[in-house]
DNA sequence: CTGTTAGCGCTTTCAA
DNA sequence: TTGAAAGCGCTAACAG
């Protein structure tokens, strides 16, 4: 039924070993022999069985990727970065959604390891001891992608979320704002949530602006929660002159809530966020936001993983990619 | 180093076969024996090797997915549908981006087949004879996802793009519009491009509205091309009262181009499209658009594939999922 | 209910 | 430069 390396060997009048050498581009084969083998392969329509190869060689040229949700634009962008570089190094990707749920994360880590992936790329929620423990049940290299572990023991590539938020809020302060509200993510989320909230607080502190409880509202990263939070801010006796949203989507919700209430952005209220998603340049006014290099996070972490898999030495196993403030039109000085 | 089924067998004082039975939940094992085996597994930290299992059983519980671009929101949504159902049936997904480029598509189909996937889900550009030929080099079931082959021989799940476009344009006509422009995709693309263009033409025809060359402008699905096309329409001596865009993104570009030119949507010009992406409800005015059930396309095609992989009989191997017009606020009657 | 025994298709020493 | 042979870790008859 299926043609194997053995069939090719017989057809070409050589041994299996030689066919194997040809298929794997081993230079120690006489050109003439090589030609014979190629012809036999062609004639028989031979296709190497990667599973058998994997068993024999203990390498699958496959890496596992655990991702919170591939339908999320940010993660999809990371995934694309991963795949492009993987491709370049002839690796394939097994993709598993885990929705930032610890049990699911642990489970997929294990099935990925069962599949004998050569390496693992992990994006998720907090990286707990339990995760680390799961990682340690095997020797395959791991890199954390767009997250870090608290202990800082696992290689990772990420941006500095705290600093990104800090920069965004500082921009508002530089413009003259003193009444700055924040639409945050869930504070349980270490990266998008907690760190950004802290950046906000630090910026306020540094500028000597008192922190006000009622100026912080938790959202769920989504458009609707941006609307909801903004409506709440508008109901306050003293409404903020600027709003910092932890994500573009919430910022857009905020802008629309403002506009739907007859307010103008940025004339009446300024809005800033972090992400720089496609949508940031697809609304009016164009959104000022801090760009996160999602594609690069994926690409760099995959590149790092290839090095780890080849046991190459790696100088810094913790890489922080730079973010950048993209100034567009949603921020202006507060009204006098 | 690594603990194998053999080690477990020895530790538990049974044969490999018995361990295998336990691991695979074969009911023919005395509960007591089962318990002994589980304990040995626990003690040794045994983790089955899926590669070895794959070689022996000729099943990898892995399916290959070729996708144009995971960073594209529509495809990412499909991918999520696929993954969820795959998960449910205990399959894993190997994901390959192929950018709708035939050479890349053929290449990844082959590497996926080398990896001995149990099934293949294909999303891409046109499905040519060359594709079919590549599919036929193996016996693994294939299903086309959000595409169809011209010959109609391969199982597939998709929506009726022509009809979706037809419905959208009809809505405009029902509203009283007679000057309807279209921002199309590239006509080489069978689904999003050509079919939607045809739906547009057919709707016009049926309503007895003459087709006008200058009212059709090719875009590339992106926001910017929606802007560009709309600016062109506005430069026409007789400008259209309504615009049909082949994608939401182009529609949003169109709306902004209109607004940036001081026109109001829908008071001055109506805009309609197809996709119903998240963004459709994240702009002002809210976009009227035909919803494509992307997640379901993924889910249903994966479900179909599981049946094919189990050699279950399948009544209809060509499934067309229903689309639906989502009426929001970007369409109104033309000015008198 | 359990064990024995062949492979699955390939890579990889080791010799020649 | 080539071949022989021993596995890689597991499943799947088959026998008992």
From TrEMBL, chains A, B:
<dbReference type="InterPro" id="IPR000843">
    <property type="entry name" value="HTH_LacI"/>
</dbReference>
<dbReference type="InterPro" id="IPR006377">
    <property type="entry name" value="CcpA"/>
</dbReference>
<keyword id="KW-0805">Transcription regulation</keyword>
<dbReference type="InterPro" id="IPR010982">
    <property type="entry name" value="Lambda_DNA-bd_dom_sf"/>
</dbReference>
<keyword id="KW-0678">Repressor</keyword>
<dbReference type="GO" id="GO:0000976">
    <property type="term" value="F:transcription cis-regulatory region binding"/>
</dbReference>
<feature type="domain" description="HTH lacI-type">
    <location>
        <begin position="3"/>
        <end position="57"/>
    </location>
</feature>
<dbReference type="Pfam" id="PF13377">
    <property type="entry name" value="Peripla_BP_3"/>
</dbReference>
<protein>
    <recommendedName>
        <fullName>Catabolite control protein A</fullName>
    </recommendedName>
</protein>
<dbReference type="InterPro" id="IPR046335">
    <property type="entry name" value="LacI/GalR-like_sensor"/>
</dbReference>
<keyword id="KW-0804">Transcription</keyword>
<keyword id="KW-0010">Activator</keyword>
<dbReference type="GO" id="GO:0003700">
    <property type="term" value="F:DNA-binding transcription factor activity"/>
</dbReference>
<dbReference type="Pfam" id="PF00356">
    <property type="entry name" value="LacI"/>
</dbReference>
<keyword id="KW-0238">DNA-binding</keyword>
<comment type="function">
    <text>Global transcriptional regulator of carbon catabolite repression (CCR) and carbon catabolite activation (CCA), which ensures optimal energy usage under diverse conditions.</text>
</comment>
<dbReference type="InterPro" id="IPR028082">
    <property type="entry name" value="Peripla_BP_I"/>
</dbReference>
